[in-house]
Amino acid sequence: MSMGNDPASSPPRFQPLRKGRTPRYAQGQGRDGHNLLLRTLLDGYSLFLEDIQGPAGRVFQNFADLLVGRLDLPLVMVSTLLPDDQGLQIVALSGRAAAYLRGFDSGDERQRGGGVLYPARAALRQDAPLRLKIATTEVLPWVERARRFHLGGCLQIPFQDDGGGRWVLSLYCHERGRLPHFSASLTEQLRKTLRQFLERRSDARELLRLRRYQSAALRVQQELLREKSSESSWQRLVEILVNETPVSSAWVAARKSNTSLLAIRALASRDASHLQTLQGLDLSLDPSLWPQGQSCVGQAWRERRPLGPAPLFPPGDTPAAADPQRHPPPLGSAMVWPIFISENSEPRAALVVEADHSQWFNEALRNLLTQISESFSLSLEQREYQRRIENLALMDALTRLPNRRYLEQWLEESLARNHHNAHNCLAICMLDLDGFKAVNDHYGHAAGDHLLQEIATRVQQSLRSNDLFARWGGDEFVLVMEDMPDRRHIEEALNKIRLLIEDPIGLGSDTVKVGTSMGVCVCAGGSQENAAGFLRQADSALYVSKRRKGRRGRVWTFSDELDAGGKDDLTRY
After folding, report:
1. What is the three-class DSSP state of 67?
2. DSSP secondary structure, 427-495, as one string
3. I need a labelling partner for 301 at 20 to 30 A (CA). Which of 293, 325, 443, 494 fits?
4. CATH (one of 3.30.70.270, 3.40.50.1400, 1.10.3380.10, 2.60.120.20) for 404-572
5. Are 539 and 519 in contact (CB under 8 A)?
6. Taking every annotated instance into account, which residue ranges of this chain make up the domain GGDEF (predicted)?
7. What would the pLDDT profile of 401-460 be if each residue is shown by its tens digit?
8. Are 341 and 381 in contact, with CB atoms under 8 Å apart?
């Protein structure tokens, strides 16, 4: 039971009636008393207008305090009927006789017709104002209790809000006093005013909610544009939804590579235990898997359309049914929006929103979530386009190898990693193809392009994950190898590349063979040279290797085998 401000714990706002005093309203019978009632009600209406967006309990509490203080009533109460007739909930209570209602059980009140809230419930049943006098009423538990608190009678005024909620304003008088004279027209006007206050409050709160939703949508759009990585923007998205809307949980699921499984990539929830449940949730796109494939997330993904509100899993098909200890029951309802990059593509992700009750998913919230899902799709599409543009800028169109620009960026990062490596070194090998011009001149440019593509594929497939093979230009390439233990390992890797390049390549009915020359620069940890300097050293070594082509025992030359001027030091061979 909620009682608003408890008169027992705080002093009343208005001067209580002293013993032996005749109520002021009773003294002012006739026109004066009626005018006092009208002025009091007008001041009450002003309260409703001044605090239209405030909590209903606070406004009703101020109204109850006003009635108690102005009309010298010992007790004024505002209550509302709980859903499914679970009893009356007191939202405002004022007056020195508030103890009359203290300690009662609302559940028992629903069962026992003679409980202390019997008059309010009776007014709700007949949906009309009800006036009762204690002295002439059948002796029931509420009557006996009312007499102990020196109450003489009550006036119950029921009213409704626009959502079908039912309320009662209850006014009690002292046993030696009398209730204010509410004419039928005045009572109806009061009921209308109370109903209008609730309706206007509902409209104001809905407008405020719409403004919050618009603000949330704008923040989501800003975050999706601001964050560089998809998953960080997804996390901000779900956090905003949980903080700015009535949803209980929000999360983003994406497909695991080359599987039918879905993984949660971003997650926010008001409920810590449900957060844990979601973190261990198994989802699949395969409907034959039970229970992982039975979720509405998988269904929305397969059918490529929004879905819900619906249970996350059909009744009886929940992970909780399969493993109650690992998977507690899910929340009430969920809605799912598949996220696409283009209309004809498979979903890239799914936005899942959960709420305790399906009624939270009203039109305003659905419109917001639809707008956010569209922004989500647009951001993924923009990122995909950006990735393609970057790939075009950093990749060689013919061989699909990293280009010179990408190589320079990669090499700076590799040198930074290598700087503190005291055990291994970094090798930069610049190479070109011997005999490529002859193939190009004899067979044509298309054949030359095919030869470059074939060599690029062979070398690329033979590399370690931390190696890089890039096209420098024409028939020149650069190989970067990190974490090489010593020169012997470098030469073994270079010889492997040589054999791949020299292996014959078919051109239609003919077979051609090309060779290679290599210039190698070895970068030890702690070196102060930059990427451009090392590339120059490798290029100088390549030049020497090509010049020595007819009299060399190997196809590569190391830069430290050159003299100080960058020339071939033949005395070393």
Report:
1. helix
2. EEEEEEEETHHHHHHHH-HHHHHHHHHHHHHHHHHHS-TT-EEEEEETTEEEEEEEEE-SHHHHHHHHH
3. 325
4. 3.30.70.270
5. yes
6. 424-560
7. 999 999 999 999 889 888 877 788 999 999 999 999 999 999 999 999 999 999 999 999
8. yes
